[in-house]
């Protein structure tokens, strides 16, 4: 995986985002349409994309690779959890803002952005590796993420195990089960899921583009605290982690996919949770939008500098 190839793939995804951006500006789609597209993406297309990586595909993964991948998932979320605390301590961030930045660090966009990139860069047979990242993402998001979002909204939400039964968790578990059991699926079903999965890439980028169209870009880069966060989250921290990951005695594909996950922008789920629990999603939305746009530059730059 070279930084040039990564840059080219990100440019393609960015072009799709801007298609959604201009479609919203031209009023070809509205907020209601976007809401329905998002529901379609969450409940149908994204699950199909993940499952398409494990049915009807040759299995290039060994048990050792799976174990290494699980270790890298643990490393990613443990690192970002600790980095969130270090960041708010170093910059003396207190109050609700501390919950905001901890949440922004902890949840990179491993789903809507990570899955399409892995498919295009490495092939659909490696999407199952991302399923472990999305499973961890959803479990943490619906437990600790709910805690952070509710505190950000001035509440203290009790833990609800029922929230774990979400499309992301279920799809990740199903994908891992199909992969582990080596299930043979009829060819027509494989084609059906592949068609839906291919549509997911375009739709996910269009939806992100529509979200970008709603941001007030005149004020997005106006605050120095936003700039500091973006430098830390999109350049400094990924650069350190990606460089150190080069020395791990793990399979190259496992390490490269981990590096992609580290470079991903802030997940849109953080804004949804913030608004759901009574918080102001404005700042969160701006950070998501800015990090998403900057990924086209920062991700290849980090990969290039870190070697």
Query: Averaging pLDDT over every residue, what do you get?
Result: 90
What is the percent of helical residues? over 70%
The largest sheet, given as strand count, sense and whether it forms a barrel, is: none
Strands, count: 0
Total number of distinct structural domains: 1
Strand content: under 5%
Topology:
Elements lengths: L2 H23 L5 H22 L10 H28 L5 H11 L7 H9 L4 H26 L14 H15 L5 H27 L3 H4 L3 H22 L6 H11 L6 H8 L5 H24 L2
Helix pairs in contact: 1-8, 1-13, 2-6, 2-7, 2-8, 3-4, 3-6, 3-11, 4-6, 5-11, 6-7, 6-12, 10-11, 10-13
In short:
The protein is mostly helical and 307 residues long. The chain contains 13 helices and no strands. The protein has one domain: Up-down Bundle (Na+/H+ antiporter like fold).
Describe, in plain words, how this protein is organized in 3D.
The protein has 307 residues and is mostly helical. It has a single domain (3-305), classed as Na+/H+ antiporter like fold (Up-down Bundle). It has 13 helices and no strands. Helix 3 (63-90) packs parallel to helix 6 and helix 10 packs parallel to helix 13 (282-305). The longest helix is centred in the first third of the chain and has 28 residues, at 63-90. The radius of gyration is 19 Å and the shape is globular.
